[in-house]
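Continued from yesterday's entry.
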Amino acid sequence: MIRHTVAFSLKHAAGSAEEKAFLDAALVLKAIPGVEKFEQLRQVSPKADYAFGFSMEFADQAAYDGYNVHPDHVAFVRDRWVPEVARFQEIDYVAL
């Protein structure tokens, strides 16, 4: 199992219609084959300088690889992520 996570902040103002539109558009990711346990999260710790997180799981590397090249993921990254995300940190985990 691979847990794919990303913490990020948007270029949009907090609570704005643009912020909501981005988060709504991101829901397309959970429908991609192989994506399990997709979550959108709001970051609340004062120790971290990001506003949101996405978390999802994949059964194996093949499922993760399929997600990365899926046309819906590629389009989301190109059309929404790159122009709208101010900064991010991606971390992928496997169990010890």
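--- second protein ---
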Amino acid sequence: MDLPAETHDRFTAADGRVALFLCDGPLRWPYAFLEPRQIPDNLKTAMRKSLMRAGPELQISNMVPRPIDLGLIPELADDTMDALNRMPLIKALIGWLIFLSILTYLFWITR
């Protein structure tokens, strides 16, 4: 593809594919792929028009990971789960009490 010198160095294969699909090249010029030496002029102009450049070039930067502060409730829940994991009998007792209270509530509502 004949591109101006200022865009030729920045034009990559990915840019060409994007421009081709943006201008509906495979649908409008399906035989242009079979003969790469004779690309139709209207395909070239359509691809040039559809090729977009967005802003400046990519710049690499580093971000330092920081711990996420979730607040007081997750800390309390974590402390509670640690305490319950140390005492499995109390954990089972609390689980059964919650289950029985739900059953009692459902019985009370349906009566």
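The chain has a mean pLDDT of 81. The chain has two domains: 5-50, 72-110. Will compare against the first tomorrow.
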